TrEMBL record, chain A:
Protein name in UniProt: LrgB family protein
One Gene Ontology cellular component: plasma membrane
Membrane topology type: Multi-pass membrane protein
Transmembrane segments: 6-25, 32-57, 92-112, 148-168, 204-225
Organism in which the protein naturally occurs: Aquibacillus salsiterrae
Compartments (UniProt record): Cell membrane
Entry superkingdom: Bacteria
UniProtKB/TrEMBL annotation, chain B:
InterPro entries recorded: LrgA/CidA (IPR005538)
Regions crossing the membrane: 7-23, 29-50, 62-83, 89-114
GO CC annotation terms, alphabetical: plasma membrane
Membrane topology: Multi-pass membrane protein
Lineage: Bacteria, Bacillati, Bacillota, Bacilli, Bacillales
Naturally occurring in which organism (per UniProt): Aquibacillus salsiterrae
Keywords, sorted A to Z: Cell membrane, Membrane, Transmembrane, Transmembrane helix
Name this polypeptide is given: CidA/LrgA family holin-like protein
Amino acid sequence: MINIVIGVVSLSGTIGLFFCAKLLYKKYRSPFTLPILTTTIIIVSVLLIASVPYSVYMIGGKWLDHLLGPVVVALGYPLYKQWTILKKYIGPLLIGVSGGAIFGVASGVLLAKVFQFDELIYYSIASKSVTTPVSMDIAKTMGGAPSLAAAFVMMAGIGGAVLGPTFLKLAKVKHPVARGIGMGTASHAIGTSRAMENSELEGAVSTVAMTVSAIIVAVITPLMIRLLL
Amino acid sequence: MNIFKISLHITLLYCFYLIGVWIQTTFNLFIPGSIIGMLLFFLLLATNVLKDSWIETGTKTLLNHMPLLFVPVTVGIINYLGFFSGKGLLLVFIVILSTAIVMISAGWLALLLLKGKVDTHD
């Protein structure tokens, strides 16, 4: 009984806070006011101050976990909706995304290895370029920590949304299709919403790239980790 | 009516997820079951076996609120805060550097293949 009460409080608190965070984001739009970031920071602070263990918060939180599988399935829908883009740019998409995915997994894992981080970090950082639910699933399959994976995904997303346009400018990537492929492959949904601000084409290509990247990274990560470690 | 429709659509998505997980465990694959479910879902939509209207409302609702679903997991970072103190700050640098590598390599490879192709820009 007490568990149900705790669950309802933590879950309704989470949902309520998230919708307030959404309102804030609407007013002050920036990668640093993303609802997922502000909500997480507030909840973590509250739990730390009130010294509530994570396991207690998760009594309610884990109810939302059941939707993580279906939401990955749902990602097939925008891919299907952008069928014309997918068909038209299939070559650049497949080659660009595959190359980016390979360099991404390799550079993340190898840099963590060079700086002698914990093994748990390798398995959690490998899939940082892809959308959170997929990245968490990959980390879980590999023996990494889904929470760490989610944190790395957020850094890659925010970092890419803020610095991505500068990276692309320095690298002289001006073509909207190539830019969309870069943003979507490196910074998933957060990068995609930044790409949408530039042009509709860039945003649409980025949407396709992030989904294709999720599939490719899910397939290559276990193989590459075996190769690299 | 709408709530009913949304629940029905999400239940359908859940079935795809379960089928994906079943395929993964049965054939002992290393690809997450959710991804297998997504590919199946995409294939059935692309081949018109599954109609837009059967899944659209629920799928859109779920995708619109997607980040909310991660909050409990991201809050889990509370158990790993130690990883980000001291030397751990290097991890932020590693992720940003690796993100730049991904973005530029993907962009350049795409440019290579886009060259020669006339940009119709539609």
